[in-house]
Amino acid sequence: MAGQGRAGATAPPGERGDSPLKLISATTTTFKSAGPVARLRAFRARLRYTLDRPLTPYYLILGAALLLVVLGLVMVFSSSQILALGQHRSALFYFLKQLVAVLLGTALLVTLAWVPLAVLRVIVYPLMFGVIGALALVAVPGIGVEVGGNRNWLDFGFFQVQPSEFAKLALVLWGADLLARKQKTGMLDQWKHLLIPLVPGALLLLMLIMLGGDMGTAMILVAMLFGLLWMVGAPMRLFVATLGVAVVACTALVVTVPHRAERLSCIGVTKLDPNGACFQALHGVYSFALGGPFGSGLGAGVEKWGQLPEAHTDFIFAATGEELGLVGTLSVIGLFAALGYAGIRVAIGAKDPFVRYAAGAATTWIMAQAMVNLGSALGLLPIAGVPLPLFSYGGSAMLSAMCAVGVLLCFARSTPGAQAALAARTTNSRLRTRLARVLPRRRTTARPASRPARRER
């Protein structure tokens, strides 16, 4: 037995069958004295252990979303103050409006993150019908407001609402609830039940949105529809056929409208056209070139002085590249990557079909919109006019994106592993509280010296 103990002590860690946790629990001195390969293995083991914890997706979603919102507020102020001063307004005008939207969005996020799943499924159809009614009002002349060539706003005097942004949230919840109910009854094996009424409902939203000319939002809804069909396990031939129809429709919409075809021709532009075409796309590329590795400094960008249109909305990523450089842009991309990874983890780990489909659709929404915006700013995709989620200026876009984050947080808390971890954490905290009331507290200071005994007379 003694020989076996000595052999086990001298054997390498991998041969002893130690778990990664035992390898990580070495002292600091042992870790510093280890070689680079051992340090890398220990780091990978710790990272794998951290990512595999049940509550990691919850904290990743919350942390990445909050960091994107805070950094977005900073960049909205930096990139919009020149525009506000040029309009004879306060330099804080756009920043304060965005701050109000963030505060309202935070209230919605907290509410949706803590409501039971049953409540989310109750509001599905009222939300869907409300969005359809609002989109129909936008198409009515005199009620809908046209901004930037698109009629997709409702003006209530002291604020404006873009119903098409909330159509994404409606499609996420309605589509997930519909597919989950059909899966429960075993109806998804037939292609007609797979497509109807999911595809007609999505087409109704797309038609109402395209009446206002907002093709960028329509592209995001198409991506979400494909995401739902992919997660539900649609046959490949059906998926390819639907994708082919969407490509033909998008091509027709681009070719028939001159300014959309012009945007398509601006992909990869390197010099300015004599007629002034591709001005915005070219100056977006100039912004990244001026930023360099570390940027020109917060507030020191020059493109926002009139050369880069929409520097605080659609092209805020280009303004970030100029002022914060490659480091800032990679940080933003890394936060979106963390958010997407956590959303996929939630969708994969969910047992409830509604949670799985809704989490996948919401993640598709955020990631597809982020990719379209980043590709437009980098000159890799045509300018679609969609904001960067949780980052760009825009009240309706901020509210809808924070609602999506709140829904993802609700789903992350509802997974079996997360519920067990939260229950264990609550039990431990209660036990500690009760023990603290019963057990004496540990002394943190030295006891006072005892007085000498009084001598008896």
TrEMBL record:
Predominant subcellular localization, coarse grouping: membrane
Region of interest called Disordered, as start-end residue ranges on this chain: 1-20
Top-level class of the enzyme under EC nomenclature: transferase
Membrane-protein topology: Multi-pass membrane protein
The record's keywords, sorted A to Z, are: Cell cycle, Cell division, Cell membrane, Cell shape, Cell wall biogenesis/degradation, Glycosyltransferase, Membrane, Peptidoglycan synthesis, Transferase, Transmembrane, Transmembrane helix
The domain of life for this entry's organism is Bacteria
Which Pfam families has this protein been placed in?
FTSW_RODA_SPOVE
Q: Which reaction is catalysed here?
A: [GlcNAc-(1->4)-Mur2Ac(oyl-L-Ala-gamma-D-Glu-L-Lys-D-Ala-D-Ala)](n)-di-trans,octa-cis-undecaprenyl diphosphate + beta-D-GlcNAc-(1->4)-Mur2Ac(oyl-L-Ala-gamma-D-Glu-L-Lys-D-Ala-D-Ala)-di-trans,octa-cis-undecaprenyl diphosphate = [GlcNAc-(1->4)-Mur2Ac(oyl-L-Ala-gamma-D-Glu-L-Lys-D-Ala-D-Ala)](n+1)-di-trans,octa-cis-undecaprenyl diphosphate + di-trans,octa-cis-undecaprenyl diphosphate + H(+)
Described purpose of this protein according to its UniProt entry:
Peptidoglycan polymerase that is essential for cell division.
Q: What is the similarity comment for this entry?
A: Belongs to the SEDS family. FtsW subfamily.
This chain belongs to the protein called Probable peptidoglycan glycosyltransferase FtsW
